[in-house]
């Protein structure tokens, strides 16, 4: 078995990527402190073709070398916007028809493995601060709270890892619905 080269992978150009239909998903980063985490989320959004990333509150924005260190150019391919207030954005997205899913440990949360995205429905996944998680007012305003099942001693995952887990889960379920 031979490892594939960059040429073998035959990836789209940034312009081709921007013109492709995306999965019905936006990512909302709620006061994420680490610029490396922000960059990693950009790379995940590129890999799985998310519509957009919203960078809220204190979340850092491109251009920044610490974001680029992990994004590896995904800040050019993924559409993004900075929004000062996460709750205001959540309410706006709801009026636009998005189902808001906070990724958090909360009472009456839905375990990710039990989550079944509705065909054709657009979703916004909210991921929170590395220490405090998603703000309570945002959790309260969410349509669904998704919890990633965990079986070890730690109580949470790094935000960039959590993003990869929930976006891949969403994409794989969406693709299986399409047959």
From TrEMBL:
One of its GO terms (molecular function) is methyltransferase activity. InterPro entries: Alpha/beta_knot_MTases, rRNA_MeTrfase_TrmH, SpoU_MeTrfase, tRNA_m1G_MTases_N. It comes from the Bacteria. Keywords: Methyltransferase, Transferase. Residues 25-167 form the tRNA/rRNA methyltransferase SpoU type domain. One of its GO terms (biological process) is methylation. This is RNA methyltransferase. It comes from Pontibacter locisalis. The lineage of its organism: Bacteria, Pseudomonadati, Bacteroidota, Cytophagia, Cytophagales.
């Amino acid at each position: 078995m031979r490892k594939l080269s960059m040429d073998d992978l035959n990836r789209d150009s940034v312009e081709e990527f921007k013109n492709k239909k995306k999965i019905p998903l936006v990512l909302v980063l709620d006061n994420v402190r680490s610029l490396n985490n922000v960059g990693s989320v950009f790379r995940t959004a590129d890999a799985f073709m998310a519509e957009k990333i919203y960078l809220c509150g204190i979340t850092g924005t491109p251009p920044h070398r610490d974001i680029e260190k992990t994004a590896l150019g995904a800040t050019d391919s993924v559409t993004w916007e900075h929004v000062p207030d996460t709750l205001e954005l959540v309410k706006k997205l709801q009026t636009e028809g998005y189902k808001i899913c906070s990724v958090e440990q909360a009472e009456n949360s839905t375990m990710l493995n039990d989550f079944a995205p509705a065909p054709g429905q657009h979703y916004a996944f909210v991921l929170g601060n590395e220490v405090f998680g998603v703000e309570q007012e945002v959790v309260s305003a969410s349509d669904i709270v998704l919890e990633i099942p965990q079986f070890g001693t730690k109580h949470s995952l790094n935000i960039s890892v959590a993003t990869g887990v929930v976006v891949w889960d969403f994409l794989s379920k969406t693709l299986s619905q399409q047959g």
